[in-house]
Amino acid sequence: MQENSKKLNCVYGKPIGEQEWVTYLPSAIPPTLLQKEQWPDGGFEFLSFTPLAAKEGRLEHIRMDHALQFLLGDKLR
Questions:
Q1: What is the tens place of the pLDDT at every residue in 34-50?
Q2: Contact 11, 1 (CB under 8 A)
Q3: Nearest CA-CA partner of 12 in 27, 28, 26, 24
Q4: What digits encode the pLDDT tens for the residues 24-35?
Q5: Which are the contacts of 50, defined by CB distance < 8 A and separation ≥ 6?
Q6: C-alpha to C-alpha distance for 22 and 59, rounded to whole angstroms
Q7: Are residues 14 and 48 in contact, defined by beta-carbon separation less than 8 angstroms?
Q8: Distance, CA of 22 to CA of 14 (rounded, Å)
């Protein structure tokens, strides 16, 4: 999504319990850890989205071996 030629990071999906798909622009996450006094009274709220349906009733192969090698490979040497 773009606004005034600036690219915006957003999420497109169907929130849990809803029928309509939405484009959601989440609020900015603070760049540093907030102190206790700085937290909003209600905390931070984010939408939960319904997972996408699997194609032909199966999940796609995501090469878990490559993901684990990337995440843990240097720790196991």
A1: 888 888 887 777 888 98
A2: no
A3: 24
A4: 887 777 788 888
A5: 13, 14, 15, 16
A6: 24
A7: no
A8: 6
